[in-house]
Amino acid sequence: MSEFSKRVSVMANEVKNLKVLTESLVSPDIISFAGGAPAKEAYPFEIIGDIAKEVFKPDARGFGSVVYGTTMGVVALREAVRDILLKPRGLDVDIDNIMITAGGIQPINMLCQLFINPGDTILVETPTFVHTSMIYKMFQANLVPCEMDDDGLVIADVEAKIKKYHPKMIYTVPTFQNPTGVTLAQDRRKQLAELGSRYDIIILEDDPYREIRYSGEELIPIKAFDQTGNTIFAGSFSKIFSPGSRLGFMVASDEFMDKLCNIKLGTDTCTNTMTQTIAGEFFKQGHYPQHLESLKNLYRSRRDAMVKALDAYFPEGTKHTYPDGGYYVWVELPKELDTGKLAPEVAEKLNVCYGDGSIFFSEGNPEGAGSNCMRMNFSGQPEEVITENLKKLGNFFKEKLEQGGTSC
Amino acid sequence: MSEFSKRVSVMANEVKNLKVLTESLVSPDIISFAGGAPAKEAYPFEIIGDIAKEVFKPDARGFGSVVYGTTMGVVALREAVRDILLKPRGLDVDIDNIMITAGGIQPINMLCQLFINPGDTILVETPTFVHTSMIYKMFQANLVPCEMDDDGLVIADVEAKIKKYHPKMIYTVPTFQNPTGVTLAQDRRKQLAELGSRYDIIILEDDPYREIRYSGEELIPIKAFDQTGNTIFAGSFSKIFSPGSRLGFMVASDEFMDKLCNIKLGTDTCTNTMTQTIAGEFFKQGHYPQHLESLKNLYRSRRDAMVKALDAYFPEGTKHTYPDGGYYVWVELPKELDTGKLAPEVAEKLNVCYGDGSIFFSEGNPEGAGSNCMRMNFSGQPEEVITENLKKLGNFFKEKLEQGGTSC
User: Fold this and answer.
1) Beta partners for A328?
2) Which positions in chain A touch B262 (Cβ < 8 Å)?
3) In whole angstroms, what is the distance from residue B118 CA to residue A36 CA?
4) Which H or E run includes B165?
5) Span A78-107, mean pLDDT?
6) What angle do CA A405, A407, A408 make, to 5 degrees?
7) DSSP secondary structure of A1-42
8) Does B4 contact A at CB distance below 8 Å?
9) pLDDT value at position B408?
10) What domains, with CATH codes, occur in chain A?
């Protein structure tokens, strides 16, 4: 049978890791803390239905919603990004520098198309998002992990690794990071933008969780400190509107945007105009502030329930992050517990699943890194389900520890 | 500034060619025969609006329409592809071999991701679709043009070029080809599938126009003759539902589909579920047969008007195809006329544009090939507009000929 391209063969391990998460999303019978989808209560169904009925008519707006769109995307939605999602957050850009994409993953893929040759190096966080690692391997990049602490990427380590590995790109999820929930401190954001400029490296600021903050003060994007165009900002409507609409966006300099338009044409021509038009109207009609407020209230309670249950029920020696927003808490169990090895037993006995910690450690980490860790999603389950199941899970881990840890 | 990847630099010429077409789509003031979008009258607005209002509710179907979808796509839409678009046309496949994609261009990109390494050869038709040529160059493939006659690709030439160039893939638009409107004869379809199997080459059967046939007998897809899985079929909803929905599909063997799922995950996670759900309902509720019939009646009259006007008003020595379906007539003017060079004058004096013939001739063709040709889209303009403007255009070309042809 016809031979596959090189890019297909090098991504096998990352694909396996990603499937640990994606397969949990489509098992309706298991209580999943593994995936990362909005809560069922979080969708503005009635508003979407009303807007759709209003929009799909044989008038100018209706035609605009069913025909091919421009490569850059529907103007009304790019204006909403500029005026509602970016300017109030400290990033003031022109709509000519905003492209609407098919969800928040497409910008990652397109930026690899623009910059990455086989063998190029990308610096990533430790731990890092498994889905993007898979894309980087698809482009035959080498991944080099950088240190993180409670304030995100450690800048001194990033600079040391720039000097050692001469990377093409640095990938960061600066706000409520996936998988840890940690946020990059304000001063480090400025320093990272400056490193990008000084060493002429692309900083890919992947910021899909920024809007859903439950506590703490809002921080200015890395891109706002970028003087040279080296930082590219990627955002998403998946967390604040609907992942099924497949809408995201990226902000880049004129020079990059011109090339990104060509890449977009060669990838899928343009982003779907039907959902762009619906989302554009959603913002234009002013539904967003109230919707966002209700999202935050919903998820804040769930985060609190999860943190409380971890503190109450998990074994002594367990550490966890306290995220100010986003979807995830990162949990570090005592060293004797291997979350990946225990996952099948947890699924069978407790009917529960989580994100095995080790899958978030890219190549370049020591063997077994993160094996006692887990990514726990709190957005997808009601408080009582979180409390009840984390109690069971905590007791399960305690029992395992009494038996001497993970059996091999 | 950061260096672009190699793939970006090699596609410049094809990008320039493609922009000749795409830019005509967004100029509202010019009468365009250049692009290829459905007629404004061809969209089922009211039905789409009603379905949307019905679907976006907090019930099982509503949730399915706003969340992340499976990588393969919404089951109801894959069933519609199987039962309505493929089985009655002679291709009987399982839904596990049908993936829904973001429009009809994404399958081309994804198959390049799956098979094409830099330097691989792809055999293409002469002339061929400029948008796909751009994608092939993005993947750093070499293009080798094959001969066509009134029955499509000349099989003996394809086989000779297989032996000479050892291609990885053969790209064909077998039904109402873009740009010529020519259809590959039934016996050649079988022969092409057999060549793919015998030489272990991928046959990419790109068939977005198949449904809109105005005359002649329906032909069985190449994929129906494929015994080895070497043929991959790509289809689109852009011509029969809405390009703004960004929906297409591809049909591939199990072995390929598994890898294509990984590629889809790394490209845009999944296709938008909102428009998949609306389109799925459109088929399920039985709207398609009547909609298709009205599309065919609309476009048949426009084709007839264009062919009649070409015969009546164009200079002696003009040749053109007579397409049994699709969007385009291919016109060959007397050698003295250069359509690319005349295009600015035509736009300025007549307020009309067309697809310059030369942009559809890939690398490997002699310099200046197709310069006396043009691709004329008939689907986008009402009959009276076609008649009136082709009269003007024909007279313009006659005058030019009297003056000795294109001035240099």
Assistant:
1) A377
2) 8, 11, 15, 134
3) 36
4) helix B155-165
5) 97
6) 130
7) -PPPPHHHHHTHHHHHHHHHHHHHHT-TTSEESSS----GGG
8) yes
9) 47
10) 6-43+290-401 (3.90.1150.10), 45-284 (3.40.640.10)
Mean pLDDT by 10 residues, chain B (408 residues): 80 79 68 89 91 90 88 96 97 98 97 96 97 95 98 98 98 98 98 98 98 97 98 97 96 95 94 96 97 97 98 98 98 97 94 95 95 97 97 98 79
Residue carrying the six token digits 């035959």: A140
Residues of B within 8 A of A56 (CB-CB) are: 45-46, 48-49, 52
Torsion of CA A36, A42, A47, A52, to 10 degrees: 20
Tokens encoding A368? 């077994």
**B244 and A66 in contact by Cβ < 8 A?**
yes
List B residues 5-24 in contact with A (Cβ-Cβ < 8 A): 5-8, 11, 15, 18, 22
Chain A residues whose beta carbon lies within 8 Å of the beta carbon of residue B3: 115
Q: Is the CB of residue B152 less than 8 Å from the CB of residue B121?
A: no
β-partners of residue A220 are: none
Q: Please give the structure tokens belonging to residue A171.
A: 């990938």
* B278 residue type, one letter: I
Q: Rounded to whole angstroms, what are the CA distances from B83 to A254, B78, B90? A: 46, 9, 11
Whether B71 and A270 lie within 8 Å, measured CB to CB: no
Inter-residue contact B328 to B376 (CB < 8 Å): yes
pLDDT one-digit tens code per residue, A199-256: 999 999 999 999 999 999 999 999 999 999 999 999 999 999 999 999 999 999 999 9
Query: Residue A324's pLDDT is what?
Result: 98
Longest pairwise C-alpha distance within chain B: 70
Quick one: what percent of chain A has pLDDT higher than 90? 85
Is the Cβ of B119 closer than 8 Å to some Cβ of chain A? Answer: no
- The answer to whether the CB atoms of A56 and B46 lie below 8 A apart is yes
Residue B39 forms contact with A (CB below 8 Å): no
Say if residue A408's pLDDT is above 50.
no
The answer to whether A318 touches A337, Cβ cutoff 8 Å, is: no
Nearest CA in chain A to B202: A2
